[in-house]
């Protein structure tokens, strides 16, 4: 079954996958990624969710979208330029690029670890410098 969302992106649900199941799993992945500030995204939890939804290999549009690309052309350009931060490979006799789901989940979790929480205050304290 092929589904299209409001932005025109089509997703192949594959055999045994329904739009209801995909929506449920996508909501779960969104909850995992939107944990409260200060908490790290658990790579194992995210990997388990992604493997349950997509299997051990991500490919095609699922790979592209999970890596944060909204168009196939932007994904292809980044791949050609060597800008992808996960190993993406081709399989003989199969169409489209592939990546290990666990590696994509680890990359997603690393984004959370890299992001530092910002502390916004109305009147920030001056930093010491040469003050006695």
What does this structure look like?
The chain is of the alpha+beta class. It has helices at residues 19-33, 43-54, 60-66, 72-80, 101-114, and strands spanning 2-4, 10-12, 57-59, 89-90, 97-100. It has a 3-stranded antiparallel sheet with strand order 3-5-4.
Low-confidence stretches: 1-19, 119-123
The major beta sheet can be summarized as:
3 strands, antiparallel
Shape: globular
Question: Given the structure, what is the number of helices?
Answer: 5
End-to-end C-alpha gap: 71 Å
Counting helices, strands and paired strands, the structural category is: alpha+beta
Query: How are the strands of the largest sheet arranged?
Result: 3-5-4
SSE series: EEHHEHHEEH
Mean pLDDT rating: 74
Give the percentage of residues in beta strands. 5-15%
Q: Radius of gyration in whole Å, from Cα?
A: 19 Å
Number of strands: 5
Helix proportion range: 40-55%
Quick structural gist:
This protein has 132 residues and is α+β, with helices and mostly antiparallel strands. Helix content is 43%, strand content 11%. The relative contact order is 0.14.
What is this structure's SSE topology?
Elements: E1 2-4, E2 10-12, H1 19-33, H2 43-54, E3 57-59, H3 60-66, H4 72-80, E4 89-90, E5 97-100, H5 101-114
Antiparallel strand pairs: 1-2, 3-5, 4-5
Helix pairs in contact: 1-2, 2-5
